[in-house]
Amino acid sequence: MAEERGSIAFFATYKPPMQLDIFSCPVSPTSRHDELHMTDGLSYNYNCQVIPPEALKTIIKRPKLASEASEADVDSGRLSGLVFVSERDMNLETLHIALRFTDKVKIFSFADVYGTFSDVRMEDSGCIAGGYKVGNRTIDHSLVYVTTKDPAKDRRQPWTVVYKTNLKTGKTERLTPAGVSDLSPSVSPSGRKVAVASFQGKGWNGEIEDLQTDIFVMNVEKPPLERKGVIRNGGWPTWGSDNVIFFHRKVGKYWGVFRADISSGETVRVTPDEIDAITPAAINATKVAVATIRKKSSFSDVREVKQYRHIEIFYSTSPQQPIQITQITRPKADHFNPFVIDGGKRIGYHRCKSDLLKHGDDIQRNFHKLHSPHPDVGLFRVSGVFPTFSKDGSKLAFVDNEFKAVWVADSQGLRIVFERKGPDNIFSPVWNQDPQKDILYVCMGPSFNAGKTLEICAIPNVSSGQRQRRKLTTGFNNAFPSTSPDGKRLVFRSTRDGGENKHKNLYIMEDAEVGEYGNGKITRLTNGPWTDTHCQWSPTGDWIVFSSTRDKPKDAPETDNYLDPGYFAVFLVKANDPSVVVRVIKSGDDLAGHVNHPFFSPDGKSISVTADLAAVSIDPISLPLFLHSVRPYGDVFTVNIDPDDINKNKDVKKFIRITHSRYENSTPTWTKFATEDPNATWNLLLKDPYTPSCPYAYPDGGESWHMTGHLCIPKRCC
Fold this sequence. Notes:
Pfam family, one: PD40
Largest sheet: 4 strands, mixed
Helix content: under 10%
Number of helices: 4
Radius of gyration: 26 Å
Low-confidence stretches: 692-699, 701-716
Strand content: 35-45%
Strand order of the largest sheet: 28-29-1-50
Protein name: Dipeptidylpeptidase IV N-terminal domain-containing protein
Organism: Hevea brasiliensis (Para rubber tree)
């Protein structure tokens, strides 16, 4: 039976609540009316490139498109084409083709048109190669792109590799060598070569913003690829000519766009030193469109125009005299990842579609069902943080993006059941596993500061809407509660006994009703100078799973890339015998990295986690919100365990990647009910949107940082 093992729900960090879509402007626009919408407006659409006319003529000959258009439509100018990423196909981030007629736009999945891949994957950075002559033969056009369909050999190695698909024959082959990871392919103007930002020879070491990739160049046709490194420490390559590559690089505090002549080896900075300039799109050998941020901002700022991400054109010969594009059309909106149209007469980009809102309007948040790699497990994304199911599967709870309110979906509908006055005050709700008790436990206080008091509270009689609370802890920093299957005891992590370094260990409330008040007793479960956190009781009650830094090497740095301690792995501890501890899954071979938020499947045979086992899938600086976010440290994975023989669960080798995303997918939870089960009334949310108020959206297409709320605070919750 489909989804017989239930459903996994998770939350996507850094994903803008408003959909992204693709637009373009003429160079030197005069008003916002010059902006042109480029797609049909459905779903999230971004990272676009133009399909040249001759390649488009080949594409429309495919059987699935043959009835849609003809070569005459292309020749007459009635039809043009785009290739871009869209999330309309089971919410996967995959490539799509737009046929843009003068009176309509029709969108098709590239995989459907060419029969390439059907597995769960991410695709990105589509660009057209070929079309050049070798002797009397014209090389077929092909689409070059990134996909995450191939598992990497090692943990913490990106799954991103470059493939090409022949647009005439449909033949698909890998260009990235075995054991190598590449990002951001770009095809030279002649169609002969492709440049990539590559991890070749260095791998990924947990970099947060600046991946420090190198740029390699290889032939589109093979053999031979003749792959060679041409630029050290560069990303997002784009060709100005077959000898000139523009790219971005971080130098000191600022990102800049550079121009490299790969024949002479000369490299010069094109953008000014005192601004951030990223994601270049070359127009020719001396002119490039870039996204700029002219003045840095902080989370609390009410931003001015210079603090938004805007598209400008720079000349390598006169970098101090750029042409402003989007400052004219929508000054209070962020614009991302420019691309060139009609030889540079127009510049395209993507941005949020918040211009469709009036100030103070609500933003609809849909709960999206996704394509799952597990045939017997459903998968969906919740538009709220820390989703949690009641044991009987009848209720779903989560907190809003500002960590201000607790929402519940059940037979009474979707509503707020508890609310605090300000943001960053409540998180990590979890149901008492005795459904008769109708109790939610939450953490109340600031979420990312171990030095601050953080209390665990119970919200009794949730369904009644009384909005009462009962404190269970008295001081210290306490978080991530989870009850035993019978609902009588509660495990949590705390800094009590943690000393000056605020070490965190696990404790058990022997009476979940009173906590440590009255005759309540607290039993220490783990003990050591490390962080034990993200704990959850097994369905049988025998084991507690948790994430820990206890195996972090003594000579490891104090923090991981200036954030949390890093070196998180997942462990099992016997609930009635804390001397029995087994490490189930680690990140890299050196234990560096993150495997966090473990959660048992309802049958106790698997554990879901959010982890950096697949490293990163995109250049992070190209993402919306990233300058005010933490890190794209994870997708959702599962590992299978033996609940009867603990010794078989040590350092499990095999894992399954559940999600493939440019965003961070985090805090998975698992219910026994399928997404279509009529007894699970929360699944109505997969069809109907809810609309929490957002007073921070600008009607001109922009958004304040508060629109995404708590996602922007630069810390990590552990």
